[in-house]
Amino acid sequence: MRSRRVERMRPARSNMREIARRCGHVREHGSVLAGMEKRALVWIAQRLPDRVNADHLSGLGLLAMVGSAVAFWMSNLYELALIGVLICLVVNWFGDSLDGTVARVRQQQCPNYGFYVDHVLDIIGAFFLFGGLGLSPFMSLTVALLVLVAFLLISAEVYLATHARGTFNVSIFGVGPTELRILLASGVVYLF
Predict the structure, then answer these.
(1) What is the DSSP string of 126-149?
(2) Closest CA to 61 of 141, 132, 148, 119
(3) Which of 13, 119, 137, 162 is deepest in the core (most CB within 10 A)?
């Protein structure tokens, strides 16, 4: 049973090229932690119960961003609510980073659907994250909204470049989503 499952989860190189051709783009992830993170995510994906699918993980990632917004807002009353932000960032990493890996490992990719859903949820999650940060005592709402606008502009550029060039760059200058979460978590720890 175990060997059959592992065999099923290792797509052939030609299969990956076919998926990239159908999707219209190739993923490039050159962040500092990308190699180590990919190995960890594949290891987790191979051990996740089959009843947990990519959509469940995407939803979990979004819920974690809503939770981080609530925790930032609650930090107005309770400084210890910042621990909730840290927990939600870890849960967001788990859901948001693992969703695509689970689909690829199980060979259940729906590239256009997955690309669309993942990035729509990222935008909604950013709205909540920066909204919560702007409602916290640590950043003014104006600055949080400006950061959100900058995030949306960068996102639009990445999505349009993916369509135009056929390459989806997950990271910029060696910094990807995981590194950004670590940077945000470091800032939250500094606030204590």
Answers:
(1) HHHHHHHHHTSTTS-HHHHHHHHH
(2) 119
(3) 162
Q: Are 42 and 103 in contact (CB under 8 A)?
A: no
Helix (H, G, I), strand (E, B) or coil at 168: strand
Provide the β-strand partners of residue 107.
Answer: none
Sorted by sequence, the CB contacts under 8 Å of residue 132 that are 6+ apart come out as 68, 69, 70, 71, 72, 73
- Give every CB contact of residue 74 below 8 A, 6+ residues apart in sequence: 81, 84
How many CA atoms within 13 Å lie on the side-chain side of 133? 21
Token pair 């690829």 in the structure block, residue: 104
Per-residue pLDDT of the chain (192 residues; tens, 9 = 90+): 444 444 444 444 455 555 555 556 787 777 888 889 999 999 999 999 999 999 999 999 999 999 999 999 999 999 999 999 999 999 999 999 999 899 989 988 887 888 899 899 999 999 999 999 999 999 999 999 999 999 999 999 988 888 888 888 778 888 888 899 999 999 999 988
